[in-house]
Fold this sequence. Notes:
The chain is mainly β. The chain has one helix and 39 strands.
Amino acid sequence: MKMKTLPYLFVCLLYVVLLSQGCSKSSSSDDIQPSIYTFPLAGSVTGTSAQTFGVLVSSGLSSVTSMGICYSATNQSPTVADSKTTVSVDTLTFASKLSGLAPNTIYYYRTYVITGTATAYGSVAQFKTATATFALNTTVTTFAGIGTSGYVDGAGTIAQFGNPLGLCTDAAGNIYVADFYNNVIRKITPAGVTSTYAGSGTLGYQDGAAATAQFYGPQGVAIDAAGNVYVADMGNNMIRKISTAGMVTTLAGRGYTGYADGAGASAVFNLPAGVAVDAAGNVYVADRGNNMIRKITTAGVVSTLAGITTAGFVDGTGTAAQFASPGAIAVSSTGTVYIADLTNSAIRTITPTGAVSTLIGTTTLSTVLGAPWGIALDAAGNVYTTDGNGRVLKITTNNVIYPLAGVSATAGFVNGLNTAALFNSPRGIAIDASGNVFVSDYGNHAIRKLSIVTTP
Length: 456
């Protein structure tokens, strides 16, 4: 597959992010100096080219005479004396393609701006080019569901769903689905046979045996090492637990919207949308209506890990950070939490100590990442997400973002290879032990399977 070049994408990054990056300047002039930002992820990297991005923050007191990207495979702090691109000085934001690169090589790059009084550089970022034989091909098929809303158990396309949302997988390869409109949790075996795992199908709130339990618009699901399934029961503003014995209980939440930390029913959520579980059994909740990430210990005690009730886009530690409608959530083997920050069109991370940073995105980067809905991690630490543009994307540990399937702003229900495949509002995403990616296709009422083959 020849990787499609990402389109020009910026309008302006948030100044609180930009200004925190700083820049190194070659002039000692007392004038206000120019400032420029380097976007730290490269797009559509092949063996010989890559797309990079920058934002001119300020031209200082002088007119800009030149700006672009400077890069090098040997100089870890590249300057304009190294290889460089030049872009129009009439734009604040730009994409710049680096060509003629060597395969399988690490490149260092940063933005530069030259005015009549100074040269300034953004922060240094890096990526590794692909090998000369690199290819990334994704085959999309329909794993379960028929494309129309309904509630039917059965094999493959016999099954019907009603706006499926969150997904998770267990060690045996079973998939668990938050079937939003049907108010149940479904289970799909590796052979593609769908059954109802918990819920009567009647909207409401009731604990007890799985078959008689009631949910109200379940949105997120996660599973722990013992096989217990956790549900972000959005309509009930609760976190529910389905034991391996088939009993549904309420882990935390009181049944109405609000915000309060505490144990069990003393805690209050506001439209919890996503859940994840770490290796120790702690549960993390994307509390969408409160714009927070909450943590529930194995003893059922709820605390606020990061964020405040006021929506915003601020990196920081704990309550110094801000989110805007965080949705899906995942946690790595090292305890780092990843959040699909929906309204900010960003992927955010939280360290075990509560330090929040931005992996990718702002509201002005919607052509690269538009309103991320789902998030999942593979064993190697690569991030997978579904976005509001109708695509499935992969962000590698080498700071490269690749579109896997779907076409931006084009809805449909088509199986096929790479961008020949179409989705209709892809939402939840999960990965099995074999590396297969599963996506809940909300508008098509189906679960799609992505088989990815990478040629090194």
